[in-house]
Specification:
Length: 433
Amino acid sequence: MIALIVNLVLLHIHTFAIKVKYMKQIDLKNTKLPNSPGVYFFLGSRKKILYIGKATSLKNRVRSYFTEDLVDKRSLLIEKMVKEAVSVEFTETDSVLEALILETNLIRTHKPFYNTRSKDDKSYNHLVITNEDFPRVLVVRGKDLTEQFTKDEIKYEFGPFPNGMLFKEALKIVRRIFQFYDTSTVLGKERSKLAKGKIDFNRQIGLYPNKQSKQEYAKTIRHIRLFFEGRKKEIIKELEREMLKSAKDQKFEEANSLKKRIFALKHIQDVALIKDESRIYRDEKRIRIEAYDIAHLQGDDMVGVMTVVEGGEPLKSDYRKFKINSLTKANDTGALKEVILRRLEHKDWPLPQLTAVDGSTAQKNVVERVFKSKGLVIPVVGVVKNSRHKPIRIIGQKKMVEEHKNSILLANAEAHRFAILYHRQKRSSRLKS
């Protein structure tokens, strides 16, 4: 179905082709690329699609491929792709959100060589709509699709979405238009009062739909499917027909609600997705580094933390705290193992391309063993300190260490600071109680 839709889109889109050789010879500021969101295609000989990307501004994004420092900003692989390309085409979209969805569908259908080269998409997010009376809309990692669901349990599936943070922001926008359930268990099979209370609370704040019939909710699910298939216009036409009928039947409150939804679809507010694209499109030189540290006082008030550096900058919104539950005596490696295992339970958190631990071989080995047990291949480095807790060396893959030394040290320093702060807070709280 998606392949058919994508092919129809490609047949009817307005495209604009520019010869790459010509682009390299002229001032790109004068080319007629639109300053609007959309999806761009680098094409090789015989119109073979080499690479597909999405852009907040097509003009700025495509221009960025024709700079002298392309290798530094992106990678050797991307430079090779640009040299191989003979033309560039694009498709405009109404919003960045729709560009993200179209890009994902097109990559899934065409599997361009330079999009899939050296990439393991098993850790990428997928959107799953379950095959139930009241379908749930869930975010699932590729490696967990077959483990968590059988083929018959999945009604629709979209993805993979490579950028976890961007996808989560996109889903928040979709949710403002279409309210859906994302409970961990099948709706109606909640066992605890807490689980039932969470559903009621989420209804009150507008995350879940108000109580409605199975038929009404099925319509919502159908609209979510159409939206992720890039068929927004079909949804709008259907809603407009319903709005006119409601008005004719003098159901003015219902008609007004439909009018607001139509407006929201026509004017998608996706400011959260309009970011510096050099941070959104990570390459080998702009990676996510997670650092871990353990803090305690002779085994008391033991805590662990995770900090994140992405693109050379701290990403404080992704920092996490862990109260150590499995130990009562000082055991840094045991505590670190617990933290890593608990961190990996959070499927909605994007996986790092590099992990840094505070310590030497023992700490590095325990993290590597946990990753191996979960089927993950993530490089681990250890930051070795002296008696004054100052870094003296980094152990790990030499190339990784050389390339990301400053970011590793920054992430490690943030982890140490954050761990000490959390430990002091926990200790102070205990003493006061």
